[in-house]
Amino acid sequence: MDPLKKIILVILAISFMVFVTFFGRLPALRKTPVAWLYRLIWIHFPGLVLSIDQALTSGRVTRSLAWIYNRLMHDRHPTIVIFFVLIMAVSEYLYLPHIWPKISLSTKSTVVVTVFMPYLFLYLACSADPGYITRQNHAYHMSLYPYDHALFHPGNECRTCRFLKPPRSKHCDVCKRCIARADHHCVFINSCVGYGNHHWFLLLLLSTCVLTAYGGALGLYLLKAKIREQYPTWSLWPPKEMEFSRYFALLGWGLHGDIRMGASTLLALLTSPLIWALFIYTLFLIYCGTTTNESMKWTDYKEDMNDGYAFRRPLAPNRPRNLRLEPLCPRWPSSPEHIILATEDAQPPSYEKNYPGQGEWEHVWDLKTVENIYDMGFWHNLGDVFAANYTFGEGAGEPPAERRQRGRSLSTKAAYPQ
Ligand SMILES: [Zn+2]
Ligand SMILES: [Zn+2]
Q1: Which of the four, 176, 191, 258, 340, has the lowest number of CB atoms within 10 Å?
Q2: What percent of the chain has pLDDT over 90?
């Protein structure tokens, strides 16, 4: 096999593995071959290795591997960040010297900015406080968002941090702290994505999207120019009159002279759709006014609703509340109209337990009837991601019933994957 084919195969295999690893756990793909492959690669295959090792060495090899794996996955360490930086830096080292003499001054300045941005946003996303909740700032985080009484109920304590969990927060096992408006723990930035760095994470994704798309397009453009100097009828889209074998032979000829640049271009083109998909998904969650953590919780709720385990009853706006457990949240214009609970026996929650709200419990069968109080419309949601203590302008404080008419209920946006 010639080196070009080997490089293409290796890049394809890496891109595919990364795709399965990242997307295999998404609720949206739960019932697709991607999730099936994810389970095969990350659950069934390790399980098989484990049982073979158990039989051969009483599990000694896997115990050592597990120790390394735990260090890698459950401790904070910069291995993946270094890997990410290396992939970018090595590709740029192979690519830039080659294209530099062939591009104009204005293209050079665009290239410099495009190359620099991902490093800047990576640094900012890694180094920013993602929203660690401490005893000192706990009161502040308690007042940032109201409890929605569906995903987040007042009065729950984090057993590790030993304080009440603020609405939208989550305890991260890797960071070993509670994170405000937690999205997910990201190994590429060796930190959580949360209230303090969500905007840097979004800009990191966007700048990497631009880098790979621009790098790929520029590489293809130069490659095309080079091949056409010798073979003027060649074009990126195979010309009708040209046989495929000749098309690929000329493409191979073009790449062979500049194998380093060709490999970097190919890597950029293959990884670009993946990063764009991740960026669009992150933006979509913001459009829905939710986080990765919350979207997973809603997906579980949806299953409970389908199975008849979810109930709700009205919450009066002027209900008495314990301000120690549920402080006022003057910043947020929306508050819950119902309490929603899932029970284990498909029977309504017990009246003895003194849950908030009044009246009869009724079944919730569908997310269509549920309002997401954290969704204030795309621009406000984006404002809340970008600005600490974001304040809502006029109109955002109108009664929830009117907001709902604008389409802020959960399923009008198909916010939660089927
Ligand atoms: Zn905690
Ligand atoms: Zn974390």
Answers
A1: 176
A2: 44
Each residue of 374-383: pLDDT tens digit?
999 999 999 9
For residue 218, report the distance from its CA to the centre of ligand 1, in Å: 46
Task: Give the residue from 351, 338, 352 showing the smallest Cα distance to 404.
Answer: 338
Active site residues: 186
Strands 170-172 and 184-186: unpaired
Confidence band (pLDDT; 50, 70, 90) for 209?
Answer: very high
Average pLDDT on 49-64 reads 82
Q: Residue length, the chain? A: 418
The answer to whether the beta carbons of residues 12 and 270 sit under 8 Å apart is yes
- The confidence band for 398, taking pLDDT boundaries of 50, 70 and 90, is low
**Which of 148, 256, 264 is closest to 215 using CA atoms?**
264
Does residue 408 carry a pLDDT above 50? no
101-128 exposure pattern, b = at least 16 Cβ within 10 A, e = fewer: eeeeeeeeeebeebbebbbebbebbbeb
DSSP 167: T
Give the pair of three-digit tokens for residue 8.
């293409």
Q: Write down the H helix ranges in 100-197.
A: 105-127, 138-142
Give the pLDDT score at 396: 54
Q: Which ligand is nearest to the CA of 131?
A: 2
Q: What is the pTM of this model?
A: 0.80
Question: From the centroid of its chain, how far is CA 13?
Answer: 22
**If pLDDT is split at 50, 70 and 90, which confidence band does 261 have?**
confident
Q: How high does pLDDT run on average in the chain?
A: 85
Q: DSSP for 83-108, please give it.
A: HHHHHHHHHHHHHHHHHGGGS-HHHH
Cα of 74 to ligand 2 centre, how many Å? 9
Ligand 2 centre to CA of 105 (Å) is 42
How far, in whole angstroms, is CA 53 from its chain's centroid?
A: 35
Strand partners, 409: 371
Q: What are phi and psi of 286, to 5 degrees?
A: -65, -40
Q: What mean pLDDT is predicted for residues 162-190?
A: 94
Tell how far the Cα of 283 is from the centroid of ligand 1, in angstroms.
27
- 146-180: burial string, b at 16+ Cβ within 10 Å, e else: bbbbbbbbbeeebeebebbbbbbbbbbebbebbbb
pLDDT-above-70 percentage for the chain = 91
Chain centroid to Cα 416, Å, comes to 14
Residue entry with tokens 């509670």:
178
DSSP conformation letters of 258-272: THHHHHHHHHHHHHH
